[in-house]
Amino acid sequence: MKEKLQEVIEDVKQTFGLGAYQLHQQQIFREIAGADRTSYILNLEFIPGGEAAADGHHPEGTASIDIDLHTRELKRITFSEEVNLATHEGFPASDKEAAIEWVEEMTGLEFGRQFRLLKDEELALEFEAAVDNIPVHPGGFIHIKFNNDGQLVHFSIYGVFPDESQINWEPFNLTPEKVELVADKQCKLLEIPIEEEGRWLQVYGMEEIFLSNDGATTLPMEQGTVWHSHVPVDKVLEWEKPVKSAFQTEDIDLANEVTAKEALAEVPDPALLPITAEDQTRAIEGAIHFLQQEFPDDSGKWKAAGMQRVSRYIIVVVTPAVPGHRVIERRLKLFLDQETFAVVNYMDDQALLNMLSDYRQAEPAKISRETAFEKLSNSLSARPMYVYEKQQQCYVLCGKLNCGYVVDAVTGELLPVDK
């Protein structure tokens, strides 16, 4: 493995013109790539001239490079302080066409067929994954940045960029009539915080969802956002009596660094393990035991809304059993040891809610839902998007339902969403 690492390091130095640089440090970490693959990334940090500053601060021009250890694909490169001291002549010029050609060369992706331009700024470009210019979900992003001298100082690619073989192709068939029929059911009364006025406001708005291409079914926005191990749950958590033992918090270790031996063996990320029916049962039991300790009087007031693996843990998301209308509601994120199924730590967004506790209560709604929907119907849209469907293990064409406005439930005024 040592010889392979040295080969990769020398190749990186030559490829990116780092002959005058010295390797300062290296590490290997893993990340999940796609539905079922683990990538092993070699991070290399090169110091120009080979000497770090006396105080340990890296000098300007320090290069940090992430390279896939097995495929040799460039994942990230950044020059500190936006100073590029490399002698590499193959970096792109700071114009869109040259940058696109370079991205195609470095990634093997084809512009217009697998990625498209998302943002075009003077010294920065952002691209997103797309198939034939139709965005995908979940997808990937590419960022490029140049300094004022037109030198590349940052490149990164992350996420997934499917090709046509992973797409269930079909023409987009969602008509306005189909969209409006589904949207009618998605028009809901919500309470949103108005920070400038320190109050809650009741509005009617559209819940963003994916609508199948035939208009027959809907998919939640969470569809496909978690490639691995995600399990939707809707289970009210109940118990008969509290547990007297106190809950003991443990530090969470989400580090993804691995040894060279693990990388060479391509040991899969533990987060890729499925959550079996037995795992789900034990995770629910672990969540209930925790609530008996920390919220002993709340039996029946919470429900498990979903769970997934992250690193060495199973995370159970807990929400109020009876949801309210506010767009910001309390939520617990429980970290369970994947071996013992005991909760070892948790996150509670109560602190955020406390910041809103002094806001004035919202006035009761005076406008009917039907009236509000009529006002919103002219602003509806369904944007074509390929969404990953886990059962079919491919991307299927959907329409992303959205609306740029909400209706003030008291005055009936149309308000832009980004107001």
Walk me through this protein's architecture.
The chain has about 425 residues and is an alpha+beta fold. It folds into two domains: about 1-165, no CATH class; about 170-419, no CATH class. It contains seven helices and 24 strands. The chain has helices at about 1-15, 95-105, 175-185, 260-265, 275-295, 350-355, 370-375, and strands at about 20-35, 35-50, 65-70, 75-80, 115-120, 125-130, 135, 140-145, 150-160, 165-170, 185-195, 200-205, 210, 220, 230-235, 255-260, 300-310, 315-320, 330-335, 345-350, 380-390, 395-405, 405-410, 415. The strands form three sheets. The protein has a 15-stranded mixed β-sheet that branches. A five-stranded antiparallel β-sheet has the order 15-17-18-19-20, covered by helices on one side. A hairpin with a 5-residue loop joins β23 (about 405-410) and β24. The longest helix is centred in the last third of the chain and has 18 residues, at about 275-295. It is globular. The relative contact order is 0.13.
Question: What's the total number of strands?
Answer: 24
- Nearest-integer average pLDDT: 91
Low-confidence stretches: none
| Beta strand % | 35-45%
Distance between the termini: 55 Å
**Overall 3D form:** globular
Q: Please bin the fraction of helical residues.
A: 10-25%
Number of continuous helical runs: 7
Q: What class do helices, strands and sheet pairing give?
A: alpha+beta
- Counted up, domains total 2
Q: What is the rounded Rg?
A: 25 Å
- How can the largest sheet be summarized? 15 strands, mixed
